[in-house]
Every structure is written in structure tokens, then in C-alpha cells.
Amino acid sequence: MLRSAMGFSEELIQQLNRALEIKFDGVQRKMAEAAGWDPTGLGRVLKGKRTTWLDTMGRLADAAGLKIVLSGEGPKPDLTRDVCWVDATIVPAGEKAGRPEAEDYFAVPLVGEAGAGPGVVSEDAVKSWILVYKNQRAIKGHTDMLAVEIERRSTSMVPTLHPRDIVLVDRNDIEITKPGGIYLVREPGQTGGGKVKRVQLTKRKDETLVVYYSDNQEENPPEVYSLQADFNDRLSDAIIGRVVWAWSDMTRK
């Protein structure tokens, strides 16, 4: 059973925590200094101990139907859903530990690479839903996520990723923070689907080259595109999102 989406103030707090992890290495002092704000006050907001102004802004935004949209991105539906347990089955190892808290988890839609488009994911494309623990360090602060199953014959990322492995993609994170990060990407002109590749941006005079490359480079040579000529100078046309987590079938290794 799925609950309705979070309110504006809750989403703002989650996005601030996400920015804290990604841009400030999880150090609140750095974020407070960048904002010119008292670290103690920032800490209260990040922990959800809201101030009067945040509560007021949240109620006004909810009443107006406003939603947070990250810079450079148009509005799009948040794919993740909150969770509510209904007769949840607990494995024997956890029977004496008590029922897990539903608010600690997201339900994330699982699709194949061919169905991993940038916008609305159709109901037909969703194979299943995966529960994701929100407080895992790599997951904390990420909200608009998509689980993607590597295609059966896709060996381009071996040995890092194998066919039928599952990766978790943050669709709000398209920044190339370091060369060689793993992303879900599109080819020029592609509106749906995607493939998992490492990405590097290279400057050449007035042009930015977008390089997709695989871990299995013997069978999959790098693909080089122009950000300006091939992707209309919009990184969001090339990158669907960054891979932040992966599940792998260890019985095959």
C-alpha cells in the first residue's frame, strides 16, 4: 500500500540533506558557512525540527500546490513512493527484532534498461517495486529514484555490473562531479530507454565532449558526443541520473 507524496517542507528538508551529502561531504559547518547561517539553526532544520517560518512556508506552498524543482530541470513526477506495511512478512532472523518502521523505506519502481526513460515511466514498463532503506548513507537525501535491471545480454559494464544486476538511479543528480562516475545515459535523439555507462566531460576549445565508456572496453569502445551539437547544450538530454547503489547476484561470482 502506498501513501501520498510528502509536503513541500518535508521535501525541502530532504533536498537540503541530499545537497549536504553531495556538495558538502556531509559536513553541516561547510553548508552553514556557504549559506552564511548559524550551524545550530541549520542542524535543527536538517533534523526536521522546523522553525515557524518553515512551517508557514510549507503550509502556503502545499495550499498553492507548489513543488520543488531542481535548477535546470523541468517539472516531472517523483517516482518513489512512501511505504505502509500491510501484513508484512518478516524473515526468521528478524522475528524477535520487531516490525521495521515503514517511514524508513521508499518504494522504488523497477524497470529494464529499455524502459528507463527520463520522464513518466509507464505502468507497462514497471516490472515490480523495490523497498529501499532511506537511512543508508548512499541513499540518504535522494528522493526521485528509479531501479533499473541490466539487460540479459548487456555485458558492457562487466566486471562491475553483470546482466540482471539492479542499479538504483537518482534522476535528480545529473552533475558530473568526477570523471568516471556511473550514470544512466541516453544517445542523441533518444527520448526513452537508456543504458548504464561511465561518463566523462572533456573541454575542447568552445566545445564540451561527452564521453560514454564501459568497463568491458574490449567489446565496447568509448562513445564520444558533442554536448552542444548532439544534446542541444543540455546535460539533461544526455544524463537520466547517477547510479547511487547496486544489487548483484553473488551466487554467480
Automatic annotation (TrEMBL):
Cross-referenced InterPro entries: LexA/Signal_pep-like_sf, Pept_S26A_signal_pept_1_Ser-AS
An example Gene Ontology molecular-function term: serine-type endopeptidase activity
GO cellular component: membrane
GO biological process assignments: proteolysis
Name of protein: Putative transcriptional regulator
PROSITE patterns for this protein: SPASE_I_1
Record keywords, A-Z: Hydrolase, Protease
